Amino acid sequence: MKSFSDRLIGVLKEKGSPAVVGLDPQLDLLPPEIKRKNFKRYGRNFRGAGRAVLEFNHRLLNIISPHIGVVKLQVAFYEALGPHGIEAYQKTVNLARKKGLLVIGDVKRGDVGHTAETYARAHLGEVDIDGTPVSGYGVDAVTLNPYLGGDSIMPFVKTAKAYGRGLFVVVKSTNPSSRDFQNKRCGTEMLCETVARKVDKWGSGVIGESGYSAVGAVVAAGSPALGRRLRRLMPRAFFLVPGYGAQGAKLEDMRLYFNDDGRGAIISASRSIIFAYESPAWKKKYGMRDWERAVEDAVLSMRRNIARMLGNGR
Amino acid sequence: MKSFSDRLIGVLKEKGSPAVVGLDPQLDLLPPEIKRKNFKRYGRNFRGAGRAVLEFNHRLLNIISPHIGVVKLQVAFYEALGPHGIEAYQKTVNLARKKGLLVIGDVKRGDVGHTAETYARAHLGEVDIDGTPVSGYGVDAVTLNPYLGGDSIMPFVKTAKAYGRGLFVVVKSTNPSSRDFQNKRCGTEMLCETVARKVDKWGSGVIGESGYSAVGAVVAAGSPALGRRLRRLMPRAFFLVPGYGAQGAKLEDMRLYFNDDGRGAIISASRSIIFAYESPAWKKKYGMRDWERAVEDAVLSMRRNIARMLGNGR
After folding, report:
1. Nearest chain A CA: its distance from B313 CA (Å)
2. Inside any domain, residue A219
3. Which residue intervals of chain B are DSSP H helices?
4. Packing angle between helix A82-98 and helix B82-98, nearest 10 degrees?
5. Which residues in chain B (92-151) have CB-CB distances under 8 A to chain A?
6. Confidence bin at A246 (pLDDT 50/70/90)
7. Does residue A313 belong to any structural domain of this protein?
8. Is B83 domain-assigned?
9. Would an 8 Å CB–CB cutoff place A261 in contact with chain B?
10. What average pLDDT does the segment A241-254 reach?
11. B186 and A182: CB-CB below 8 Å?
12. CATH number, domain at B80?
């Protein structure tokens, strides 16, 4: 069984970029033509909304899959649509994996004991239906919340190891109130640094041939100094870095999340890519009708910007 | 709009007990007769499993609803079954509410910005389908994870206020590794105490006529001293206390979670009630065939034990 980190590095090499696109289909921003068609066919309800989301994702995947190797699905936008939304989530995962993409389920789950095992098997492994193992959501990795401690993470590590999957623990998030607890000084360091130490430990049994672990971290440090400290505390972790294209995030600051080998981080953008047609730059050029060309331009621009930042000119 | 805390107190008064039953339908423990029937009718797959779960819950609700006022659904056991599981979750929520029970969705979500708003509307409020508001999961309250700070909680508080719903923030969990972070000393107190202060603050704008807030806390302190400190830090919060009937949990230690008015806490049991027929005591008396009588005996025994502990003899 090839480890998650080796699979991830393989797909990043193949595509030549650490860019990740977030498929976060916020219903009110979906192209009107897609909503109109699906509401007409399936009803202006959860069913129609689920089908609209699936068509949007399908067309997005056709555009972006030649250019990027990893997609991230924020499950909230699917969960909000009930069973029809979860069906769209499953089908999107399958479509993306058929195109050779790695899929991260941005679920941020965190629970303990048998509940954690149930989540782990459902998202990364197989569910036992009365003795018959049935594939669950089948994503390549999930994001997790660390507040409940090691008991809430280790069932995922165990399942990740068995199925060649991975996980990213939220260490430091982008939002202003991440300071409420993550930046609290606990002894000689911030809480997020204490979490980072644990992430390194939790991942120590699932190191791939590349030297990287199947246990990664969600990191948006906010300051270069903290970013460097987190990188040092988790040398073997892949960082999932959100916030590309979001207000206030500086791409240059993301350089320090990469190790000297140019690996160790993936950079994620959601809204600025999939809803590129609503940004002033692309809106003027393409308008809403040509939303697919705006998406392609945005993803190519993201690739170029990241390559320039990394200094490899690709 | 009646506030969540007043609605909660109303139903606790009506039923005369702060007992909560957790509907956590672990598939391998479901009564064989229910599985057999539903697998035969719908297939030994997610569909059959979802229908088996729904029938089990329906029959559980018929037994327990005369005796208790609140049920808690651990969503992991539904989410694990895909769209069919989520459908069973929705239908169980509806059945329970029709019987006049309050329903807590034990989802432990935690995310920020628009994602948090999407989760909040889906679980506690209404989802906007192209201009039409459609009821979401419709639970009365959810559990939340605080690691991402106020940004991840306030969208729920806002939705809770608008719809008369509530939330319970995980402050201190039961599992051994809750010590990893929750017990970390940050300055003069433990992290969970810092979280407790925030819970009190987040709930300050949603106080009901009873004096209790719509923002509660999940608390399993582990030590009476910490339990008392948490009670003092969150005087207006309802505590959702897990662990009744679980190994090691002492009912007597739960007395201190209640305020002097005998209110302020609800005590939850899952496996020891719904799978009572697998415990030695009830197994011998009833066996698997009479699982419904074992459930009723277990829930009545829980009520009695809690009443004795509270010293009101009810």
Report:
1. 34
2. yes
3. 4-15, 32-42, 46-64, 76-79, 82-98, 113-124, 150-163, 191-202, 224-233, 271-274, 280-286, 291-310
4. 170
5. 108-116, 118-119, 121-122, 127-130, 132, 134, 136-137, 145-151
6. confident
7. no
8. yes
9. no
10. 82
11. no
12. 3.20.20.70
Which positions of A are catalytic? 108
Chain A nearest-CA residue for B85? A83
B312 domain-assigned: no
Query: Which of B27, B129, B181 shows the shortest C-beta gap to A146?
Result: B181
Measured distance CA(B97)–CA(B65) in Å, rounded? 10
**DSSP tally for chain B: helices H, then strands E:** 12, 12
Distance CA B300, CA B273 (A): 10
Calculate ∠ Cα B54-B55-B56, nearest 5°: 90
Using CB atoms, pick whichever of A112, A130, A195 lies closest to residue B181: A195
- Which of residues 169 through 198 in chain B touch A, CB cutoff 8 A? 170, 173-182, 184-187, 191, 194-195, 198
First to last CA, chain B: 31
Its pTM surpasses 0.90: yes
Q: Residue A313 above 60 pLDDT?
A: no
Helix (H, G, I), strand (E, B) or coil at B2: coil
Amino acid at A102: L
* Structural domain for B157, as ranges: 4-307
Going by pLDDT thresholds of 50, 70 and 90, the confidence category of residue B251 is confident
Label residue B312 by pLDDT band (50, 70, 90).
Answer: low
d(CA A244, CA A302): 8
Q: Among all chains, which residue has been given the structure tokens 């400290």?
A: A229
* Closest CB to B46 among A108, A134, A145: A134
Contact A119 B79 (CB under 8 A): yes
A169: β partners? A144, A217
Overall number of domains in chain B: 1
Pairwise CA distance, residues A237 & A187, whole Å: 24
